[in-house]
Amino acid sequence: MSRGLVRGAVVAALVCGLAACGSGGGGQSDGKELTFWMYQDRTPQAGQVMEQVRKDFEKANPGVTVKLVKIPKDDYNTKLGSAVASKSAPDAGILDQPLVSKYALDGTIKEVPAGLITEADYYKGALDTNRANGKLYGLPQDQTTVALFYNRKLVPTPPKTWDELKQVAAQVHAADANVAGMNVPKGDGYGAWMFPGIVHGAGGEMVDDAGKKVLFDQPPAVEALQLWVDLQKSSPRKITDSDKPFENGLAAMTISGPWDVPTIKEQFPDLDFGVAPLPYKSEPAGNIGGEDSVVFSTSKNPDLAWKWLAFLANAQNNGAVADAFGGFPVHLKAQVPAGGPEQAAFLEQLKVAHARPAVPQWIQVNDEIIAPAIESALTGKATAQQALTDAASKTRSLLGWNG
Amino acid sequence: MAAPVLERVTTGPGRRARRRPGARRRDHLIGWLLIAPALAYFLIFLLYPALSALYYSFTDWNLRTEASWVGLANYADLLFDDVKYPHFWKSVSVTLQYTLIAVPLTLVAALAQALLLNAIRRGANLFRLLLFLPVVTAEAAVGAIWRWLYDPQYGLINTLLGLVGIPGQNWLNTPELVIPALAFIAAWQCGISMIIYLAGLKGIPGSIQEAAIIDGAGPWQRFWRVTFPMLRPTTFYLLVTGVIAALQVFGLVYVIFSGNGRSVTGGPEQSGLTYVLHLYLFAFRYDAMGAACAMSFILLVFIMIVTALQFRFVKQEAA
Fold it and tell me: Which controlled-vocabulary keywords does the entry list (chain A) (predicted)?
């Protein structure tokens, strides 16, 4: 009897071990299950919105089950890359805007079937983030931008121009040396992502991707970086490097996006803040971000997957879905869910927002070249011009561009 | 349930007597079956990925398309092309600095804690638990807590320094202070080394200490002439494993410098861009899996050399 027990235990162990190895594929046997990867819900309400949309879709398509797989944003691209490499990608999923062209050029995602959507129904800027080689590879789901958050107690009227911004920041810091005028972005990946919006505000461009020219060593970009350098005089890092300086009332202004509004209201109910479009030098401008959705080439149900993506992005659902994703609708007729008074500023900002350069290596340029250049100017190790001249020449070498 | 059964099979007195011809072969089979899960795990999850990584280190691969063979180009570019990999050598230097500070600091902290724990009788279990807690705490929580402790405005560390008149520092945002700050967290997490040191201390025969006392050795002399030399095998083991772990530090830096909208560019001026973080970024953020694989093998070779040197030049025997 004891030997039987041993054998049983060994077999059980083996079966468990093998089952653990074999269950990675997430098999869809009946062909009616659709797997959709997305970021983890930002708020409980966002989860409810997605649940409702999922139910509506399943009701409209009897026999179909949509499986929403929610992954923390920090891990998302890593997990997706691994899934694609191991040929176990989901049917469809969210994709950060700069990745769409990469995935498209690799043949990892499918082209949008003709007639799925009416292109004229969508904001052109958001739709264009889905293009590669002139073809459409995904549907936009939400678009977003950053704007100026200001503490009403410290800044009664938000500055509109760079000069006003510097002046207001200086006044705040002069009134109380423990308060920084502005939480100036840093020379990290996030700061480098926000930087182009400031450059556009001086009438400049980061690159001319069609003409293969690097332009961020030109005066508009240098002036933009100089603005951040100048702002630091009234905004010491020692203050702004603390945890949530704006929320804690230690920085009078900061740059952030709509995703921060509910978080601040929930966690810092006493903070009286407003949101205004970014101050500019010569023309109002900002940068654009957001999520697109794509169908992977390994999908077993591509038609159904496209139907689901179009359902998320249609006039009826996109307002709520985009809001759940933390941005604004991409469908022209979609209702923007009524937001707080901050909303107007973001919507105005979106009208003048520019998409980031359509350069496949842009994330690397952003992180490895522009971010350190910004940091060296902010810490005074180089002038703004020196830092950007150096960064531009490195970018030219990396991309193999002459201009 | 399993334990008594195993005991009867392996050591039960009756079995040997009842052994029949062919039983040996059956024992072999059972042995193989017993190690099969571990063997399968080793082959599928350790050996196969390692060999794949070696193959991919000679290719240009972005995870999505077919890998194309490039021979030694990844290795050559990593070492010599500072346009493609501007921060490779920076990440090497960051990691070496971290190792040089974190490993000794961890060993000293672990030994000090072990000596204290060994000396007390009452409440030893409680302190052992408390000192071990940092090891079992989730890395993300550790990162969050230490970001707060190091905070330039609200941080407890600056507050404590202020009490003794040392001006507060912007620990995680001053390039020169980032590595010492990270090493300090590593030393705070020295629980495992502490437990191993404690075991080593328990293994020193009391008679030797007594003899030293009779010979008139003071506490200081007893530590340097008796305890420390007797702990040499333990110290050697912790040194070798500690250096290997420090050269691969990743999780701590990742949670300290990412999350909350911060992006993982490795802290101010890449001062916290450790080798494995750099590797991770190329693997999963910049789409250069081939280069990332090459980086991992450069690290493997480096670790083997460092370990061999330690075996050659560091005293290992108890004296």
Answer: Signal, Sugar transport, Transport
CA-CA distances (angstroms) from residue B60 to B109, B288, B296?
Answer: 44, 7, 15
Least confident of A251-260, B16-25, B171-180: B16-25
Containing structural domain, residue B185: 85-316
In chain A, which residues have their Cβ closer than 8 Å to the Cβ of B264?
189
Strands (E), chain B: 59-60, 68-69
Question: Is residue B184, in this structure, part of any structural domain at all?
Answer: yes
Query: Token digits for A395?
Result: 């970018």
For A202-357, where are the alpha helices, taking DSSP H only?
219-231, 237-240, 260-267, 302-312, 318-325, 343-351
Do B143 and B67 belong together in one domain?
A: no
Domains A8-144+289-350 and A147-287+357-399 share a fold: yes
**Residues counted in chain B:** 319
The per-residue pLDDT for range A240-278, each reduced to its tens digit, is: 999 899 999 999 999 999 888 988 999 999 999 999 999
Q: What are the DSSP E strand ranges found in A296-379?
A: 353-354
Q: How many helices (H) and strands (E) does chain B have?
A: 18, 2
Cross-chain CB nearest to A237 (options B34, B170, B261): B170
| B21, part of any domain | no
User: Any CB–CB contact under 8 A between B286 and chain A?
Assistant: yes
A385 pLDDT above the threshold of 50: yes
Are B36 and B134 in the same domain?
A: no
B269: left (phi over 0), alpha (psi -120 to 50) or beta: left
On average, the pLDDT of chain B sits at 89
pLDDT band at A306 (very low <50, low <70, confident <90, very high): very high
Cβ(A165)–Cβ(A182) under 8 Å?
yes
A302 vs A214: CA distance, rounded Å: 39
What does chain A come to in residues? 403
Q: Which CATH class is domain A147-287+357-399?
A: alpha beta
Give me the residue label for tokens 């939480």.
A183
B237 and B257 in a common domain? yes
Whether A367 and B65 lie within 8 Å, measured CB to CB: no
Q: Which of residues 3-62 of B touch A (CB under 8 A)?
A: 5-6, 8-9, 30, 33-34, 36-37, 40-41, 44, 62
Position A338 pLDDT exceeds 50: yes
In this complex, is the C-beta atom of A369 within 8 Å of any C-beta atom belonging to chain B? yes
Q: How far apart are the first and last CA of chain B?
A: 45
Contacts of A190 in chain B (CB under 8 A): 261-263
CB distance B296 to B250 below 8 Å: no
Does residue A289 sit at the B interface (CB-CB below 8 Å)? no
Provide the pairing of β-strand A213-214 with A180-183: unpaired
B248 touching chain A per CB within 8 A: no
The CATH code for residues A8-144+289-350 is 3.40.190.10
What percentage of chain B exceeds 70 in pLDDT? 91
Domain map (residue ranges) of chain A: 8-144+289-350, 147-287+357-399
β-pair partners for A132: A135
- Kindly tell me if the per-residue pLDDT of A14 is higher than 60: no
Asked if A120 reaches chain B (Cβ–Cβ under 8 Å), the answer is no
- Indicate the residue type of A241: D
Residue A295 — φ and ψ, nearest 5°? -110, 130
**How many structural domains comprise chain B?**
2
Amino acid symbol at A375: E
Residue B19: is it exposed, middle or buried by C-beta count within 10 angstroms (0-12/13-18/19+)? Answer: exposed
Contact B123, B186 (CB under 8 A): no
